[in-house]
């Protein structure tokens, strides 16, 4: 009778013991993960000037191969995640195409002349939306690769800045869609009063390229912060070279702007100038208390 009651008790409590085991396993995994993340963030790298690091790498190239192998693993995981998000984007790619075609009246205003044209447009839009969805994870993989060479404060800021990467990229695309396209599309469609029927491949290719590159440009402040954290650039250098930067910004805006009118070019230049001066502030924040990496002086003998 006692054995029967014991077996019955074991049977009745099996689901609860299984749930308790799962919860304990998850708690141990979370605790172990939190401990590894804390140790990873708090670990301070060897503070060595960049020229010395480059010299050691030249003396021992095997160390460079290890870094390249680590970079390959991070990029492989990022590519796999990009494939997953791109596949997920198939479900709403048609709605995105219709949204992108709103400046010309919607998707019904596009006219395809090739059999595979709609399919190529569908894949292109899916890839762009998949990249936007995968951008946080791609940034995380890049942060994991660069984090061992950063200090604690820089690692924390880089981790916190991962959502900012998405905000800046999406903000750049929203800026191009909201302010640039309403100005550029009517000009292009009515140039010389020649009637134009947009093809899906050319129109969507033009729109997605513009959105992508404007989104990338909006990442400039974060890139400058990373370079300043590594000691490659500093706020004083950026501030002193602002005239040259304006020339480069003007050339880049002219290359990106879809039209030749100065209004569209000015719409592109305005956020780029603001982003440049924002980058100076971020560079000052990243370089606070850090001496820039300089090449060692070469001794000369009379």
Keywords for this entry:
302 residues, mainly alpha, 2 domains, flat, disordered C terminus
Describe this protein's structure.
- The chain is mostly helical and 302 residues long.
- It has two domains: 48-218, no CATH class; 219-290, no CATH class.
- The protein has helices spanning 2-42, 50-59, 61-89, 93-100, 117-146, 152-160, 162-189, 200-217, 220-229, 235-240, 242-256, 262-286.
- Helix 4 (93-100) crosses helix 5 (117-146) and helix 7 packs antiparallel against helix 12.
- The longest helix is centred in the N-terminal third of the chain and has 41 residues, at 2-42.
- The protein is flat and about 100 Å long.
Q: How would you sum up this structure in a few lines?
A:
The protein is mostly helical. It has twelve helices and no strands. The termini are far apart.
What pattern of helices and strands is seen along the backbone? HHHHHHHHHHHH
**Structural class per helix/strand content?**
mainly alpha
Major pleated sheet: none
Distance between the termini: 105 Å
> How many helices?
12
Uncertain parts: 292-302
Summed up, the domain count is: 2
Helix content: over 70%
Bulk shape: flat
Can you lay out the helices and strands and say which pair or pack?
Elements: H1 2-42, H2 50-59, H3 61-89, H4 93-100, H5 117-146, H6 152-160, H7 162-189, H8 200-217, H9 220-229, H10 235-240, H11 242-256, H12 262-286
Helix pairs in contact: 2-3, 3-5, 4-5, 5-7, 5-8, 7-8, 7-12, 9-12, 11-12
């Amino acid at each position: 009778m006692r054995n029967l009651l014991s077996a019955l008790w074991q049977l009745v409590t099996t689901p609860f013991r299984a749930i308790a085991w799962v919860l304990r396993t998850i708690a141990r995994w979370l605790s172990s993960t939190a401990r590894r993340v804390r140790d990873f963030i708090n670990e301070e790298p060897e503070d060595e000037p960049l020229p010395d690091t480059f010299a050691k790498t030249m003396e021992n190239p095997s160390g460079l191969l290890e870094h390249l192998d680590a970079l390959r693993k991070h990029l492989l995981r990022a590519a796999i995640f990009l494939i997953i998000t791109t596949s997920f984007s198939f479900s709403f790619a048609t709605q995105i195409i219709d949204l992108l075609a709103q400046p010309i009246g919607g998707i019904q205003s596009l006219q395809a002349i090739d059999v595979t044209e709609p399919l190529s447009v569908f894949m292109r839009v899916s890839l762009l939306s998949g990249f936007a969805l995968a951008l946080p994870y791609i940034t995380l993989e890049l942060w994991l690769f660069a984090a061992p060479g950063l200090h604690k404060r820089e690692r924390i800021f880089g981790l916190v800045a991962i959502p900012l990467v998405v905000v800046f990229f999406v903000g750049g695309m929203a800026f191009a869609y909201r302010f640039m396209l309403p100005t550029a599309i009517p000009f292009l469609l009515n140039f010389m009063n020649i009637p134009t029927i947009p093809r899906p491949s050319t129109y969507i290719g033009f729109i997605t390229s513009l959105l992508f590159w404007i989104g990338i440009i909006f990442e400039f402040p974060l890139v400058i912060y990373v370079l300043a954290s590594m000691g490659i650039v500093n706020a004083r250098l950026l501030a002193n070279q602002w005239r040259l930067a304006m020339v480069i910004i003007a050339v880049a805006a002219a290359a990106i702007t879809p039209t030749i009118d100065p209004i569209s070019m000015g719409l592109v230049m305005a956020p780029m100038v603001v982003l440049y001066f924002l980058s100076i502030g971020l560079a000052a924040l990243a370089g606070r208390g850090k001496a820039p990496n300089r090449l060692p002086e070469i001794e000369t003998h009379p």
